[in-house]
């Protein structure tokens, strides 16, 4: 692998050298600013290009944030932002030093992105070399498992999830958001999936939690159906199995505003509900898999049983709720991203963007069916 070392340089030279030795000892290639040849580009442009060329980034955070660039972020912060959405970042925090205010804020941002913890901490260069060796070894093992997984097969499994779970009003049109682990893991034992305490906790979350999906005034039932635990309401279902597969079914149509209103698929409602479903799925995964054994997954979204209902914006629907141009084509629509797999942290930190992208893909499929 090509491993980029990202940190403030001044004052951390012994630590950067220790990290580089650990990387090379494992037969990987080091990319760092100290080794860059002369170039017509600025040093920071060269560093950001180094991040793009790398397979993995080691982020070392010590006491100082560094000088702001034109972006108002430090060079290290820019490198982190460049890397985090496209490649793994292994983060290490210097213990025994007092972080300045900006560095504390940056460390907090990294901590949230990493799921609440840093990869490791260090005090001496020798500490850091050991921790880098361990982290790279763990990453290699994890990456080998992911490489052995079959994304195409996982996508097929994900698409198969887009059958409305029984218990909701699927015949009236359903939006279904499904999450399929790239590499399924045994997250819950059969006895845990049957546990009434888990049923109560999920029911409480789906009705009253920070990412609640259902109407708290309506009846809700929890039951097992085959390998699935279902939390169901008349117009929605949340389903979970022992391997971390999740599907959320919500109404696809706008609420009828007048006696003359006709069913329609409202773009803003769809985007909002996809985002809500993804946020709930992220919460549910954290509940069942707090150590993040499931790290990569394939999200898919579908509309089922929508008949010839048209796709409209909220404004268009409000202006003419009783008129529409019926669409033709397929009754069911299924979309996925390209490439289909995403890191698990994207469910928490890119939820809005994912919902927007899925909404656009659904709109395109609906438009193509006219």
Strand content: 15-25%
- Overall radius of gyration: 24 Å
Span between N and C termini?
A: 48 Å
Element-by-element helix/strand order: EHEHEHEHEHHEHHEEEEEHEEHEEHH
Query: Total number of β-strand segments?
Result: 15
Number of H/I helices: 12
Q: Compute the average pLDDT.
A: 87
User: What is the helix fraction of residues, given as a range?
Assistant: 40-55%
Largest sheet: 8 strands, antiparallel
Question: How many domains make up the 3D coordinates?
Answer: 2
Low-confidence stretches: 167-171
Q: Structural class, from helix and strand content?
A: alpha/beta
Shape call:
elongated
Question: Explain this structure to me?
Answer:
This protein is α/β, with parallel strands linked by helices. About 1% of the residues have low confidence. Helix 1 crosses helix 5. The strands form three sheets. Strands 6, 7, 8, 9, 10, 12, 14 and 15 form an eight-stranded antiparallel sheet that branches. It has a five-stranded parallel sheet with strand order 2-1-3-4-5, with helices on both faces. The chain has two domains: 147 residues, Toll/interleukin-1 receptor homology (TIR) domain (Rossmann fold); 218 residues, no CATH class. 40% of the residues lie in helices and 20% in strands.
Question: What labels describe this entry?
Answer:
370 residues; alpha/beta; 2 domains; eight-stranded antiparallel beta sheet; 12 helices; 15 strands; elongated
